[in-house]
Amino acid sequence: MSKLTIENIKEKKGKEKIVILTCYDYSFAKALDEAGLDMVMVGDSMANVVLGLGQTLEISFQEMLSHTKAVARATQNTFVIADMPYESCHNGASRAFKDARAFIRAGAGAVKVEWFRGCQSIIKKLIQNNIPVMGHVGLTPQTAHLLGGFKVQGKDKKSALNMIKQSKTLEKLGVFSLVLECVPSQLSKFITESVSIPTIGIGAGKFCDGQVLVLYDVLGLYRKISPRFVRRYGDFFSETKKIALNFVADIKKDNFPGEKESFLMAEQEWDDLSSSFMCP
User: For this structure, is 58 an active site residue?
Assistant: First the structure.
């Protein structure tokens, strides 16, 4: 199996569902790569679920770059996408290009840019310089404060038409795929059928060309919030807590480490050493 290309991804539209999970480190990325995911996204959601920050816009470029390198080292077959953090996109096109190029050099196959007023010039600059871009419309966490908070977008005619326009604009700019976040399923279906590029849903219903979720939500590791659109496939938080409690108990009761987890000197070597400490 060889790593997907941009063209491979685009060819899946209408033929095969695209599967994406966020990922922020080498070990999880290795597991996802072996599971055969199409893409992994080094999402700025790392700000919340890994770093404990309040908003995605608080994460730095350097933090995102470091974790992108870790994920890229683990992925032999899975296509890697790096989220462009707020500071990279909101300080001019030159800064955005510099940071996007660093993500590509770190091993990402593409970057993702959320829609915001002025994003067209950023995306145009990147694509003109051969940096593949995934677009993102609907609920855009980096600018959620301008959208009335974290809630479903496009529920009325005016905002829905605006989102359709945004999607078409990004398609014309040359993005290779489009994330639709927290969008009514009727609207996501319409957009999916209206654009020639794959759409990736997160809280956008079943009619998108693919789906993405935050890995820590799927695993049940992140407990601070539980979005309606998430399906948990495990309870790693409780399992991790249980394992930690067992570890604490073993140490408190002097049950760890045991002989199996310990090393010994050869008996003769120890006898020779201990005899050297004996008083003449």
Answer: no
Task: Take residue 53 and report the two structure tokens written for it.
Answer: 């920050």
Q: What are phi and psi of 212, to 5 degrees?
A: -135, 140
25-45 burial by CB neighbour count: b if 16+ within 10 A, else e? bbebbbebbeeebbbbbbbbb
DSSP 159-186: HHHHHHHHHHHHHHHT-SEEEEES--HH
The answer to whether 164 and 192 have CB atoms below 8 angstroms apart is no
What is this structure's pTM? 0.94
In sequence order, the β-bridge partners of residue 137 are 180
All residues at 6 or more sequence positions from 223 whose CB lies less than 8 Å from its CB, including other chains:
237
Instruction: Of 62, 69, 6, give the one whose Cα is nearest residue 42.
Output: 69
DSSP for 251-262, written as a single string: HHTT-SS-GGG-
**8 A C-beta contact, residue 25 and residue 49:** no
Do residues 177 and 9 make contact, with C-beta atoms less than 8 angstroms apart? Answer: yes
- For the chain, the 3-state helix, strand and coil shares in percent, each to the nearest 5, are 45, 15, 40
| Active-site entry in 63, 181, 259, 261 | 181
**Which residues on adjacent β-strands are paired with residue 211?**
19, 201
pLDDT tens digits for range 176-234: 999 999 999 999 999 999 999 999 999 999 999 999 999 999 999 998 888 889 999 99
Q: Which of 199, 179, 174 is nearest to 189 (CA)?
A: 199
